[in-house]
TrEMBL record:
Its main location: cytoplasm. GO terms for cellular component: cytoplasm; nucleus. Belongs to the HARBI1 family. Keywords: Cytoplasm, Hydrolase, Metal-binding, Nuclease, Nucleus. Residues 165-224 form the DDE Tnp4 domain. This is Putative nuclease HARBI1.
């Protein structure tokens, strides 16, 4: 099968056609009165809201409350409010699409440069240490571990589990080839593209409780997970001894 990268013009036409189809499908699902003005995202029907942003309205509202504290009030030079900034970034995160599509869809209506700034702003906010500590918390004592175990048993009849662990590849630009500590080749995964192999652990309520993103794409899942499981076994032993 031909690699589409060899046919950039054809590839671009396919992307444009796909975006047109997506926009048409979205417009078909939205009442006509909503298309004549800049859309308040929270007025969207719940299924469409989830489809566009991959969060329900309550979680999105909670996140908006958090990021608003870090975003300055709109000015003449930067007229976007916190809600527009957040949902522009969420649309990009949800679809993994081009910034032009994320910004110019019928609900956000911002330019590509503004979209880039929105993504950068929200990404930096979500990486604030105090936010990470609040939202990504791994069990640190037996009470917290037992709570997670009980949730897995209550929801899935699955015993003695505190989390579900897996790895996923996040595509990245090729790093510098002259880096002696982490040469470019170690970031090429088994599918042939550059990535980070990111380990995630979630609890029974699908909440992420651990993230490890230091591994280059060529690192095997079993190696990453094995490292973490050894650390967890040691930590669990220490917690038991301390009681």
């Amino acid at each position: 099968m031909a690699n589409v990268e060899y046919y950039p013009a054809l590839n671009m036409l396919n992307l444009v056609a796909l975006q047109d189809l997506q926009e048409h499908a979205i417009r078909r699902d939205v009442p006509h009165r909503m298309l004549n003005r800049r859309q308040d995202q929270f007025e969207l029907p719940d299924p469409l809201f989830m489809k566009l942003y991959r969060l329900n309205k309550q979680r999105a509202s909670n996140l908006l409350d958090v990021v608003t504290n870090y975003i300055p009030e709109p000015t003449r030079r930067s007229a976007l409010d916190a809600q527009t900034i957040l949902f522009t970034a969420l649309r990009f995160y949800a679809g993994g699409s081009y910034q032009v599509d994320a910004g110019l869809n019928i609900f956000n209506g911002v330019s590509q440069p503004s979209t880039s700034r929105c993504i950068n702003t929200i990404t930096n906010i979500l990486n604030e240490e105090e936010i990470q500590r609040e939202w990504i918390h791994f069990p640190e004592n037996l009470d917290e571990m037992n709570y997670n175990k009980n949730r897995f048993w209550q929801k899935f009849n699955f015993p003695n589990a505190i989390g579900c662990i897996d790895c996923t590849h996040i595509k990245i630009f090729p790093p510098k080839t002259d880096d002696l500590d982490q040469p470019e080749r170690i970031f090429v995964n088994r599918k042939g593209y550059h990535s980070l192999n990111v380990q995630l652990i979630c609890d029974a309520d699908y909440k992420i409780i651990h993230v490890d993103l230091k591994w280059p794409g060529s690192t095997h899942d079993s190696f990453i997970n094995g490292k973490k499981l050894k650390i967890l076994a040691s930590k669990r032993s220490e917690i038991k001894k301390s009681r």
